[in-house]
Each structure stands twice: as structure tokens, then as C-alpha cells.
Amino acid sequence: MELRKFLAQAKIAAYASRREGDESILEDGCKELTFEGGEFKYRDRYFGFNPFIDEENVWQNGKILWSMNYYGRIISDIVPAKHVYQFLQKAMRQVSEDRPFRGPNNFKDADFEYIDESEGTIENFRGTEIIRSKGQEIYRLDYHGGFIKSK
User: Fold this and answer.
1) Number of other residues whose CB lies within 10 A of the CB of residue 54
2) pLDDT digit string (tens) for 17-59?
3) Preceding omega of 80 cis (within 30 degrees of 0)
4) How many structural domains comprise the chain?
5) Rounded CA gap, 8 and 26, in Å?
């Protein structure tokens, strides 16, 4: 299986499709979601709720291959946090193999709009995702990552 395809599957299976409480809570307080497929293993660990910080890692045949970090927060209280994160999960279920970082370039549902702008390739990238409600920015996340090479 190719990394891009695996990442899209892992993101949909882990965060985008989970219910509250599906994650493991580790000794240090972080929450963890995992997914495995073929020669790949995915681990998503995050701290906090609003704001939150996260790290996603992928191993291939037991060796670290790829990683991504991000920091996100709700920046307006005009919409309950629960609704913002439910919409974010919908957007994340639209992740593509072409850009397996976060969600699609643009996604709309009712009063919400998701926008993701990134630059680079799966090897080295960075980007920002934004959620708007009725045109007002209510959420922002910055991310970066890429391939990791071991000695």
C-alpha cells in the first residue's frame, strides 16, 4: 500500500470517524488514536481541547517514516465547540490521497465552510486550515511535517 492511500484511510478511520471517548488516554494525559494497515502503522496523539496540540506519526515495517505536527483552536464562541468539532470531522472525512495532510481545499455544509491551504508535498509541507460560520472565522489550525529519515 502506498503512504498517501494509507494516510487518507488512517485519518478517516481515526479522528474523522471516532466518537467521543474512542481514544485511549495515556498516563501523561494525552489522547491517542491508532490505525494499522499492511506494512504501515499510524499513531495520532494530542493534548488539550481548545486549544490543542497534536502529533501524527507513521511507521513502515517498524521504522519511523513520516510525521506531522499541528496546533489548533477555536477563536470565536459564536458557535458551540461541539458543533465546530463535529463539522471538522465531516471535513476530515473528505481527505484525499493527493493531499493527505488535513481535509479538502474547500468543503461547505449548512452555515459552515472549511478551507485548507497548504504548500509542499508529502515529503515536506505546511499549511493552515480555517473554519468559518456564516463567513466569520471561528477556528484556525497551523500544521507542518514530512518524511523522517533515521540514521
Assistant:
1) 20
2) 766 566 788 788 899 999 999 999 999 999 998 999 999 999 9
3) no
4) 1
5) 25
Dihedral sign, Cα of residue 82, residue 85, residue 91, residue 92: negative
Q: Using one digit for the tens of pLDDT, what is the confidence trace for 66-85?
A: 999 999 999 999 999 999 99
| Contact residues for 83 (Cβ-Cβ < 8 A; gap 6+) | none
Cell numbers that stand for 57 in this block: 506519526
What angle (nearest 5°) sits at the alpha carbon of residue 46, between those of residues 32 and 119? 115
- Report which residue type is found at 65: L
- Give residue 140's domain range: 3-147
* pTM listed for this prediction: 0.91
Report the Cα–Cα distance between both ends of the chain, in Å, rounded: 24
